[in-house]
Design brief:
By secondary structure, the chain is of the alpha/beta class. It is built from eleven helices and twelve strands. The strands form three sheets. Strands 2-8-7-6-5-3-4 form a seven-stranded mixed β-sheet, sandwiched between helices. The protein is globular, with a radius of gyration of 21 Å. The relative contact order is 0.17.
Length: 402
């Protein structure tokens, strides 16, 4: 194959040209400190506030509910640790789904070491949260509930709207500040699903720029205006005191532009991605692959089924890392799961939580598509590369066994 194919967009995607142009303009022309009160500062402030309005429009939210961070990891940490700190007067319990990103699981583990009760809620074989187990775990001590919108390894769309409704029934009689904070990591949902956190009963939502064609190192948290979390960073009081530190003006402005574009293109992109995902699943199963996670069912508007851009598949008898490198030799780039845990030798906690045997979990590879950077011809090229890589690896295994 003459051209390389990159299908690891759940890890990161190339920066959109429109976002890169915003970065260039802010860094070369509007480089002031947005906290300064002279003209250069006001130019930078306008860029930050425009991005805040762009993100708010995507979420059907108010601009003042958007706080910019260094990425989704910081946003997730702020929700878990800051949400717990704001509720420590009565809350001593944290509920997280077992398939959350480490940006949620690690702060939850820290809280557990500090004496909080942490319950990791089970999922079904498609990675979907068991609502009955969530309902059984709810009591007056719960301070934070965290459930991601789209699982980053399986592509499972979690029923966050049903979680929100369940929490409203259970705690709706309490004042907003006395209710548990319901946090949603929506990193893989932005640009693929119509995000409506307030309508879903969500209290806070984490977002990341580089998953939608913005730069790395920029994220945001949406926090409902009636709720409160304790800041993790103290200093100059930027971002209304919730996140001190000089704003990454160029990155924030590019994030706003990238999110705006992703939302504008979303409806058309979802149909295209879903068709490619179905083609990949069919072709990989013809090669002996076993799909991990749900089959396509989402139209991008409903919270059900699978996201349109992630495929997780395993080939019994082969290790995912071995297959990954064989595909790399063919010029095709995929992953074995989350990029944030790629260096760990143990099987994915997500796949184990979904009931896969460790050997099958270690054989998984993830393919993830981009609405703007993936081309139709790359789907068939990828399947052809899989065919050659599998033939080579299965031949090698046969030689060893003989």
């Amino acid at each position: 194959m003459s051209e390389e194919v990159y299908l690891d967009h759940a890890a990161t995607s190339p920066v959109r040209p429109e976002a890169a142009e915003v970065v260039r303009r802010l860094m070369e022309e509007e480089w002031g400190n947005p906290s300064s009160v002279h003209r250069k500062g006001l130019e930078a402030r306008r860029a930050v506030e425009e991005a805040r309005q762009q993100l708010a429009a995507v979420l059907a939210a108010e601009p003042r509910e958007i706080t910019f961070t260094s990425g989704a990891t910081e946003a997730d940490n702020l929700a878990l640790l800051g949400g717990a700190a704001a509720r420590r007067g009565w809350g001593r319990k944290i509920l997280v789904s077992a398939v959350e990103h480490e940006a949620i699981l690690q702060p939850a583990a820290r809280l557990e070491r500090e004496g909080w009760e942490v319950e990791r809620l089970p999922v079904d074989r498609e990675g979907r949260l068991r609502l009955d187990r969530l309902e059984a775990a709810l009591d007056e001590r719960v301070a934070v509930v965290a459930v991601m919108l789209v699982n980053n390894e399986l592509g499972t769309v979690e029923p966050v709207d049903q979680v929100g409704a369940l929490l409203a029934r259970r705690f709706g009689h309490l004042a907003p500040a006395r209710r548990p904070l319901f946090h949603v990591d929506a990193v893989q949902g932005l640009g693929k699903i119509r995000l409506r956190p307030r309508a879903w009963g969500v209290g806070s939502m984490a977002l990341s720029a580089h998953k939608v064609g913005g730069p790395k190192g920029v994220g945001a948290i949406w926090l409902a205006k009636e709720l409160r979390v304790e800041p993790l960073l103290l200093g100059g009081g930027q971002e209304r005191g919730l996140r001190s530190g000089t704003e990454n003006t160029a990155g924030i402005a590019a994030f706003g532009r990238a999110a705006e574009l992703a939302e504008a293109e979303r409806a058309e992109a979802v149909g295209r991605l879903a068709a490619w995902r179905e083609r990949l699943i069919r072709g990989l199963e013809e090669l002996g692959g076993r799909l991990n996670g749900p089959r396509p069912a989402s139209d991008g508007e409903r919270l059900a089924g699978a996201a349109p851009h992630i495929v997780n598949v395993g080939f019994p008898g082969l290790r995912g890392e071995t297959l990954l490198h064989a595909l790399e030799a063919e010029g095709v780039y995929v992953s074995t799961g989350s990029a944030c845990t790629a260096s760990r030798p143990e099987p994915s906690h997500v796949l184990l939580a979904a009931g896969l045997e460790p050997a099958l979990a270690q054989g998984a590879v993830r393919l993830s598509l981009s609405p703007w950077a993936t081309r139709a011809e790359e789907i068939d090229a990828t399947l052809a590369a899989f065919g050659r890589a599998l033939a080579m690896l299965r031949g090698a295994v046969g030689e060893v066994r003989r």
